[in-house]
């Protein structure tokens, strides 16, 4: 080993205090530094700890006995994050710092902090046996294969390249440490990650979602509703704990698909939003992040009791065309069973010089974008009712009245929509006058 990689060697006698005293005494001696570190009867040269009359010493803070060669291993430690059921590999190099040819046979061993989470059977090192000449460098490939049924935890192991042990310890001198954090493989897959909807106060809503057991064995579930502590708007929704009812089978066989039904009774005085989630409690274990939850996001909508009013003036007798429109979408993405989604509509009234004018829609236009269900849901969750999903629906009602010079008042009462737009068009022979809001 070169000087920069040399490990300091200090004698250790009856106790730490005596050890420190000997080190100070040794350091006080004068002499020419010739590449060897000399303390008393202990010499460290070329990576080899040579013991003359003292049986124990420190190497990098670890105690060693006898003649031990400290070889160069790069890296000396390695950390990995893996999902159960996956495989990864990395390379580690070993340099022979001794004066003799070595036959290196790497082995995976447990460490002092392994506990019960030993992972020796998950790791293989190749080549399994190689001859390394003095000063030579060889690379080894470490393959880590985490079983699919591994639980979420921090796992530890070591790869030992020689059999040298620290005295009074099971730790290997020439080894690298491996720290492995494993995320358990999900046991269930959900049709969707959340249910989001705009709901009306005083009505009860029912939703249905498919669940698939993707584990290799039967599982149990016990869905429970939880509310996010940070969601201050929960109080305005006025929904009591436990009001959301859930029905689902307690056992799902391996590979089977089951339904979970959620019933939401919206209070009469509900306003604001509800933010929570359903913890599936798979196999009665705390969710470690491997199994998905169902997010619940509901916005309470109150039907307006007064219309929107727009005042405008005309300076010609040209006919007046009025378009009232809205853009809607199904936030529940077809997961709502009841009540059925109601189409938007408008109650439009028009006044001329404070007198109501007869109005009726001359045209109703509906447009929509359509995606196949696979854009939103996994293939196993699709049925005939979800093959197609309508998105970005556009609804327009068109009104036409005879024109007159004067002041007009447009009243719009929206139904089953929380947003709308309108346009007022005045036509004549010379030009179009367009008012848009």
Structure notes:
The protein has 3 domains: 69-183, Sandwich (Immunoglobulin-like); 188-301, Immunoglobulin-like (Sandwich); 308-426, no CATH class. Strand 2 and strand 3 (42-45) form a beta hairpin. The termini are far apart. The chain is mostly beta strands. It is elongated and about 110 Å long. Helices cover 4% and strands 49% of the residues. Mean pLDDT is 80; it is low at 1-65 and 432-437.
Q: Secondary structure elements and their pairing?
A:
Layout: E1 9-11, H1 16-28, E2 37-39, E3 42-45, E4 48-51, E5 56-59, E6 62-65, E7 68-69, E8 72-74, E9 77-83, E10 87-95, E11 102-104, E12 107-109, E13 123-126, E14 130-132, E15 137-145, E16 153-160, E17 175-183, E18 188-190, E19 194-200, E20 204-213, E21 219-220, E22 224-227, H2 234-237, E23 245-247, E24 251-252, E25 257-265, E26 273-279, E27 294-301, E28 308-314, E29 320-328, E30 336-338, E31 345-352, E32 355-357, E33 361-372, E34 388-401, E35 406-415, E36 421-427, E37 432-436
Parallel strand pairs: 9-17, 19-27
Antiparallel strand pairs: 1-5, 2-3, 3-4, 4-7, 5-6, 8-10, 10-15, 11-14, 12-16, 13-15, 16-17, 18-20, 20-25, 20-30, 21-24, 22-26, 23-25, 26-27, 28-35, 29-34, 29-36, 31-32, 31-35, 33-34, 36-37
InterPro entries: Ig-like_fold
- Helix % is under 10%
Our Rg estimate from Cα atoms comes to 38 Å
Biggest beta-sheet profile: 5 strands, antiparallel
Summed up, the helix count is: 2
Number of strands: 37
| Estimated share of beta-strand residues | over 45%
Number of domains: 3
Structural class: mainly beta
- The CA-CA distance between the termini, in Å, is 80 Å
What is the 3D form? elongated
Low-confidence stretches: 1-65, 432-437
């Amino acid at each position: 080993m070169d000087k920069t990689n040399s490990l300091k060697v200090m004698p250790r006698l009856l106790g730490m205090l005596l050890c420190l005293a000997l080190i100070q005494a040794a350091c006080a001696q004068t002499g020419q530094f010739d590449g060897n570190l000399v303390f008393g009867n202990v010499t460290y040269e070329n990576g080899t700890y040579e013991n003359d009359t003292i049986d124990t010493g420190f190497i990098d803070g670890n105690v060693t006995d006898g003649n031990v060669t400290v070889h160069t291993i790069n890296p000396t430690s390695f950390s990995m994050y893996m999902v159960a059921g996956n495989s990864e590999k990395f390379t580690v190099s070993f340099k022979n710092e001794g004066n003799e040819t070595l036959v290196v046979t790497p082995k995976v061993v447990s460490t002092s902090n392994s506990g019960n989470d030993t992972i020796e059977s998950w790791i293989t090192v190749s080549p399994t046996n190689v001859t390394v000449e003095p000063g030579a460098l060889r690379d080894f490939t470490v393959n880590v294969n985490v079983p699919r049924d591994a639980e979420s935890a921090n796992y530890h192991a070591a790869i030992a390249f020689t059999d040298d042990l620290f005295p009074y310890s099971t730790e290997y001198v020439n080894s690298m440490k491996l720290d492995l954090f494993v995320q358990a493989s999900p046991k269930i897959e959900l049709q969707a990650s959340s249910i989001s909807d705009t709901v009306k106060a005083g009505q009860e809503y029912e939703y249905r979602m498919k669940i698939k057991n993707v584990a290799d064995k039967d599982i149990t579930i016990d869905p429970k509703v939880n509310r996010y502590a940070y969601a201050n708007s929960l109080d305005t929704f006025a929904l009591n704990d436990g009001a959301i009812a859930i029905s689902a089978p307690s056992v799902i066989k391996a590979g089977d698909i089951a339904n979970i039904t959620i019933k939401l009774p919206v209070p009469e005085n509900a306003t604001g939003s509800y933010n929570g989630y359903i913890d599936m409690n798979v196999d009665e274990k705390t969710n470690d992040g491997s199994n998905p939850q169902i997010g619940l996001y509901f916005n309470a909508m109150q039907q307006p009791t007064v219309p929107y009013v727009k005042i405008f003036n005309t300076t010609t007798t040209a006919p007046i065309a009025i378009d009232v429109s809205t853009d809607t979408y199904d936030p529940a993405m077809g997961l709502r069973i009841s009540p059925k989604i109601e189409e938007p509509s408008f109650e439009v009234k028009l006044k001329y010089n404070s007198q109501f004018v007869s109005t009726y829609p001359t045209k109703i236009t509906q447009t929509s974008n359509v995606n196949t269900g696979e854009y939103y849901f996994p293939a196993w969750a699709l049925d005939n009712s979800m093959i197609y999903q309508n998105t970005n629906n556009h609804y327009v009602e068109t009104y036409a009245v005879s024109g007159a010079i004067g002041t007009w008042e447009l009243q719009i009462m929206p139904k089953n929509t929380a947003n709308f737009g309108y346009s007022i068009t005045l036509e004549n022979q010379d030009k179009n006058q367009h008012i848009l809001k």
